[in-house]
Design goal:
It contains 2 helices and 30 strands. It is mainly β. The chain has a single domain, classed as Neuraminidase, CATH 2.120.10.10. The chain has a 4-stranded antiparallel beta sheet with strand order 2-29-28-27, with no helix packed on it. Strands 3-4-5-6 form a 4-stranded antiparallel beta sheet, with no helix packed on it. The two termini are 27 Å apart. Bound molecules: calcium ion (4 copies). One calcium ion binds next to strand 13. One calcium ion (CA) binds next to strand 9.
């Protein structure tokens, strides 16, 4: 039977196809349960901030007690010719991001690090102000829930760099915040500073802890707090900045008086003839007060870089190390997080989660809080986090950030990384979720059908009108 080519038929078909196409998009949204159980895929990458003309880099991530994710990063404003600090927020587990706050001055602001106190959801963003080439200051902007206030951490005439911030989570209104950073005497002589705030970031005890190793270098710090209220700071240490470095850790009680940390260990270094550690990242169990993990990059002159870990299960007296990934590719710039982010609980015995570059791509592994360690790829995800067309930015330091988030009783990671698939550096986010590929694939079929149907409708209309 011949079906007459009525315009209204084509319009109807077009409408139906359009509805189908739209519904396939809504399938993407409604099926997304990034923290859902049983998932074995990573979601499609989402842009944290869409600016293809300027660079976004140096991300740092945190979770609040409502499960909202925040990324602090530096954004280069080419018109302004300065770096600014941007903070983006996601209320849907990293699927979509909106710009939450910007911090700008007449100077460049660099190297942000973010922490959230889950007791009151205050947000702390520490960063560097480039007062001059030889004088950088450390500042911290605090969001109380209604307003942002910028506080001075260290604004003396010295050159202070690369803050890393951590917040207590388990002492209620008595939670403290801590910032480790490096004091750059000269390129080859750098010291470790740690500042502490006991009043929600209003004031900071500068030089709460201080280490210098004489004319040697302490650099690339990362800080965390343990379940029982100790503070752990890891850094790379060496004779000079470009020489082979070992990985040190300094730790002490949160209540200790100003001065050197009571304890320090070289957790990886010259022993066994293995050295060349850099860019350590640290996380502490939210259940076991003695369980701390450090991940770092091992620099090998003759071959390629690997990613390693070192951990203690006795509060820092003993450390054991092993490989996370040591293939023939360059593995670089690892970051570690632990289940329990955004929670005040002290009984989350979950996973330690590591994201790092593997060649040009971003990889991810996790290991459950236990020994012996087994760092496994996320199930069903043998491929890089970046899509095949994507490329990372593994030449950039501190170019990945990760956090954990809770849903349906389970903890899940989110990973943000610096990516150069477009013309400038961008930040992309992803999290495990249900397979988003099928709806996307359907929309690829439906959209052309919609276009063809529309074209036919136009042709039919023209034929009817005789034009
Ligand atoms: Ca200064
Ligand atoms: Ca020194
Ligand atoms: Ca390697
Ligand atoms: Ca960009």
């Amino acid at each position: 039977m011949f079906v007459k080519l009525e315009i209204r038929n084509f319009l109807l078909i077009s409408l139906l196809v359009a509805i189908l196409a739209l519904s396939s998009i809504s399938i993407v949204l409604s099926d997304v349960e990034p923290q859902g159980t049983g998932s074995d895929h990573w979601m499609v990458d989402s842009l944290v901030y869409d600016d293809d003309g300027n660079d976004e880099s140096w991300p740092s991530m945190a979770t609040d007690s409502n499960g909202n994710l925040y990324v602090a990063y530096q954004h280069y404003d080419s018109g302004f010719e300065r770096y600014r600090i941007y903070i983006s927020k996601s209320t849907d587990a990293g699927l979509t991001w909106t710009l939450f706050h910007t911090i700008q001055k007449s100077t460049s602001l660099l190297h942000p690090s973010i922490a959230i106190d889950p007791h009151d959801n205050r947000i702390y963003v520490a960063y560097e102000e480039e007062v001059s080439t030889s004088n950088h200051d450390i500042l911290c902007s605090v969001y109380s829930g209604t307003e942002w206030i910028e506080r001075v951490v260290d604004n003396d005439s010295q050159n202070d760099r690369f803050p890393s911030i951590a917040s207590d989570y388990q002492f209620g209104s008595n939670n403290y915040q801590y910032i480790s950073y490096e004091f750059l005497h000269s390129y080859d002589d750098r010291d470790l500073n740690v500042a502490k705030s006991t009043d929600q970031g209003n004031s900071w005890q500068k030089n709460w802890h201080y280490r210098n190793l004489g004319g040697r270098v302490l650099t690339q710090t990362s800080i965390t707090t343990s379940q029982d209220g100790h503070v752990y700071v890891t850094c790379a240490a060496g004779d000079d900045y470009n020489s082979q470095k070992w990985i040190n850790i300094y730790y002490g009680d949160r209540a200790s008086v100003a001065g050197a940390f009571e304890n320090y260990e070289t957790i990886w270094g010259y022993h066994d003839g293995l050295y060349g550690g850099s860019w350590p990242s640290i996380a502490a169990s939210h259940a076991d007060p003695d369980f701390i993990v450090v991940v770092f990059q091992r620099y090998l002159i003759s071959t390629n870089d690997d990613v390693l870990y070192s951990y203690t299960n006795d509060g820092g007296a003993s450390w054991y190390w092993g490989n996370i990934s040591n293939t023939g590719y360059n593995e670089r710039h690892p970051v570690v997080t632990v289940d329990g982010e955004g929670s005040t609980s002290t009984s989350v015995a979950g996973y330690f989660r590591v994201a790092y570059y593997y060649g040009l791509f971003t990889h991810y592994k996790q290991a459950y809080h236990s020994t012996p360690w087994s760092w496994t790829e996320y199930p069903g995800r043998p491929n890089p986090i970046s899509s095949g067309s994507g490329s990372g930015a593994n030449d950039q330091e501190r170019s990945i950030a990760t956090t954990t988030q809770k849903d349906d009783g389970s903890w899940w990671p989110n990973v943000v990384w610096t990516d150069s698939r477009r013309s400038s550096y961008d930040l992309y986010s992803t999290t495990p979720g249900n397979n988003p590929i099928i709806p996307e694939f359907l929309s690829l079929i439906i959209m052309p059908l919609f276009m063809i149907a529309t074209l036919l409708a136009v042709i039919a209309y023209r034929r009817k009108k005789g034009i």
